Amino acid sequence: MKPINVGLLGIGTVGGGTFTVLRRNQEEIARRAGRAITMKIVADKDLQKARTIVGERALVTADAGEVVNHPDVDIVVELIGGTSVAKDLILRAIANGKHVVTANKALLALHGNEIFTAAQKADVMVAFEAAVGGGIPIIKLLREGLTANRIEWIAGIINGTSNYILSEMREKGLGFGEVLREAQRLGYAEADPVFDIEGIDAAHKLSIMAAIGFGIPVQFPAAYTEGISRLTREDIRYAEELGYRIKLLGITKRAAKGIELRVHPTLIPARRLIANVEGVMNAILVKGDAVGQTMFYGAGAGAEPTASSVVADIVDVTRMLTADPEHRVPHLAFQPDRLSDAPILPMAEVETSYYLRMRVLDRPGVLADITRILAGLSISIEAMVQKEPHEGEKQVDIIMLTHLTVEKNVNAAIARIEALPVVAGKVTRIRMEHLD
Ligand code: NDP
Ligand code: HSE
Question: Which single residue of 117, 201, 357, 426 could bond 195 by disulfide (Cβ 3.0 to 4.6 Å)?
């Protein structure tokens, strides 16, 4: 059978990994795909670099347009990143009748609905396994493996860089900046690392998973996003003393009035498997009504783990090329005309538990003032610790863990507690999930 021709856009970390894996495992991959997969043409801004990696095995160009217009290219693999040039190239590839494979979660989070609609009209596939969870085949699992289920919630460590930073800070006591630089050197971090540390990258991935899990459009702008940059070593230590680990979690849940879609640092009981996922590894918990709780674990970033997902998509597209478009798996798992309009809940309406830390004057009546405020807002305390005052200081840290409560009540409580004259500075609030 005639080989499938691939055109690659961008031969950086993931593009380089994809080229290497396709070449190293070409025999095995051809046996699976039923035909050879050939890298026909590679575009990169840095021609010299591309030529060094590719050698004489493919055409090399600095003009990405050549790839999307090449008459012999069947599948365009977009690994440039970003949301402007990449979007234009993907839409041009689709208009030219080419199938697309991409790892670009930022692009799909912002423009996925438009891209999938264009692909559907052109009868082509857009595959994006590598966009979520790096090497973990979570898209296929959610879209196909769990298709019998009504998904109840998804919660995951879905940003390798921030998990790597939290792990190194906790285990080795290293500073934030130092660990971030190492993550960049290892190729884990996004071009703009703010995306990693402020939870934006995780929210991109979460909004894609929510769409597939619940059959809703991709709605990244409605996601609540809070990163790890304000976490202190103190809170990491206090959480540990209370039997918890802090992880940056992406959580999406079916609630009575809509869908929760939120990324934030989260206390998780230290005994949970997911609390022990360290370094650049990712893990995603999915709760389905039939299957119960499932957990998927693997490398969330890096050249070859991500290439593993990119190549799987290339093989998937190769196998489905001749299938009637009506019978292919829908991009977002649900038939495009059967998506639900369930609203994304504002954060104030979300219900969860909380870790609250406040620095207060060590004098009688302070605790009573604080607990009176909490009780007045129906916030019930699950556990409480008062730390020893630091030597020579008259202030102490109080840490409270709450039972489930609605976020707007906690917002009101924090405002009132911060207004008490015995409370110094801001109250630290970290959300808490038991995931059981
Ligand atoms: P890199 O920056 O390492 O690679 C991108 C490559 O594309 C670079 O070589 C860049 O050249 C080239 N490029 C940029 N613009 C153009 C253009 N207009 N025409 C041709 N080439 C161009 O990024 P990554 O490989 O890390 O990421 C690629 C995509 O994969 C992103 O969407 C990212 O979010 C996603 N991803 C990354 C993962 C990872 O572990 N790194 C994991 C999962 C997804 P130059 O360097 O000269 O600008
Ligand atoms: N920057 C991302 C991360 C790459 O650290 O997880 C994988 O999507």
Answer: 201
